[in-house]
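Board notes (copied after class):
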Amino acid sequence: MTETKDSKYLTIGEVAKKLGLVNLQSGKLQTHTIRFWEKQFKQVKPSIRAGNRRYYSKKDFDIIKLIQHLLKDQGMTIKGAKIILKKKLENKLDDNIKFSVDNPLKNNLIIKKKILNIKKLINEINKYKNGKKNIN
């Protein structure tokens, strides 16, 4: 991280490295991806200094990391990711739609529990439909 008086910032290359945005064949950093996301997502606002160099705050990095998660890991479209990001930053996401960028395994467990609960409800409904339980 590059140190400044007030806080720590990352260059675009450092952000690309941390996110694993590297071309596997050439080994070159894919900084163009980050610049594209900047244009698509107005929430990413790096400081631009001398020589047109970009410096990303911790907040910018966290937003970019979430964007990457939504687009690459969750397979969302840019439009869908924009909606989720906007709601997340406005703290308006429903409790059932929270994402954990750092812990996808936790997300899988939550989803599996919800599926199990739904299956139990379906079984209960089927029992009532088949007359195996009395409705009182």
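Comment from the instructor: The chain is about 55% helix and 10% strand. The mean pLDDT is 83.
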